[in-house]
Design goal:
Mean pLDDT: 95
Radius of gyration: 18 Å
Bound molecules: NADP nicotinamide-adenine-dinucleotide phosphate
Number of strands: 9
Number of helices: 9
Largest sheet: 7 strands, parallel
CATH topology: Rossmann fold
Distance between the termini: 50 Å
CATH architecture: 3-Layer(aba) Sandwich
Strand order of the largest sheet: 3-2-1-4-5-6-9
CATH superfamily: NAD(P)-binding Rossmann-like Domain
Structural class: alpha/beta
Helix content: 40-55%
Number of domains: 1
CATH class: Alpha Beta
Length: 261
């Protein structure tokens, strides 16, 4: 039976691109997001590109328990899971003082807790088979804090921590863990974050990479069992500067974030 890949946040952007890249390699797909119509379009595209089978499942991951539910649906319908890509998420460009605890709790549920629930639900299956791969789509600002995006950074740092620690727990059990840290990527993310932040729009300091590049990197990370991937050269440069001078990197982040203040 061909590989089965579960992807959350597959209705647009990076998740959609990852689905397309896996489909091109002949993987079967279980696609998750809220917008069913969009998922249906992605599923059709994936079938046309070589996926032997696709299923869609609408879940609102802001609801506690949905992360686990989607995994049990996937196991019911696809009989197995080989790769779990936890990608669904959204951001904000808001000072902490203006971002309520309720909003933070919702973002935490979608960006981190739902991924934790999915991983926990998939682990018995992976452990029983002695194989499987978990992908967490974090961000470069899960490695270096960006002012005015603190709630989002917190969720992305948590994903990096979870992924790094989990890799150590699972390395001798045949289960891989990859953390993907994209830099600025051209997707709907920025419009969604603007709405979340009650802003008409957000400024774009640089031209970003395409989601296609990130989708392909996710497939590569799984195939090569990469532990962590940093994408875009400004992001890689930032991490290097941060190692040499945290103060300079802090200043750069302040400058970059000031456009969205
Ligand atoms: N774009 C960037 O610059 C960038 C950089 C670094 C990291 N990332 C990360 O990459 C991941 C994908 O983002 P993207 O850039 O591809 O943005 P996107 O195009 O806005 O995609 C976000 C995906 O998450 C899903 N989603 C959001 N809220 C959800 C909810 N409550 N329940 C279920 N699904 C939900 C959306 O589907 P529905 O709306 O249909 O539910 C959509 O499929 C995110 O985790 C983001 O943090 C993005």
């Amino acid at each position: 039976m061909s590989e089965v890949v579960v992807i959350t946040g597959a209705s647009s952007g990076i998740g959609r691109s990852a689905a397309i890249s896996f489909a091109e390699e002949g993987s079967g797909l279980f696609l998750v997001a809220r917008r069913e119509e969009r998922l249906r379009d992605v599923a059709e595209q994936c079938l046309a590109l070589g996926a032997p089978r696709t299923e869609i499942s609408a879940h609102d991951l802001s609801k506690p328990g949905e992360g686990a539910r989607l995994v049990s649906f996937a196991l019911e319908r696809m009989s197995k899971i080989d790769v779990l890509v936890c990608n669904a998420g959204y951001g904000c460009f808001t000072p902490v003082a203006d971002y309520s605890a309720e909003k933070m709790a919702r973002m935490w549920q979608v960006n981190f807790q739902s991924a934790y629930e999915s991983i926990q639900a998939a682990l018995p299956h992976f452990l029983q088979r002695g194989s499987g791969h978990i992908v967490l789509v974090s961000s470069i600002i899960g490695k270096k804090g960006m002012p005015f995006s603190a709630p989002y950074c917190a969720t992305k740092f948590a994903q990096v921590g979870l992924g790094e620690a989990l890799w150590g727990e699972l390395r001798e059990k045949g289960i891989g863990v990859s953390v993907i840290c994209p830099g600025y990527t051209e997707t709907e993310f920025h419009e969604v974050a603007a709405v979340e932040s009650n802003k008409a729009q957000t400024s774009r300091p640089l031209k970003g990479q395409s989601s296609r590049v990130v989708g392909q990197a996710i497939v590569r990370a799984v195939r090569k069992k990469k532990r962590q991937i940093h994408l875009t050269w400004p992001a890689k440069l930032l991490l290097l500067i941060n190692r040499i001078s945290t103060r300079l990197a802090d200043y750069i982040m302040l400058k970059v974030s000031s456009v969205n203040r």
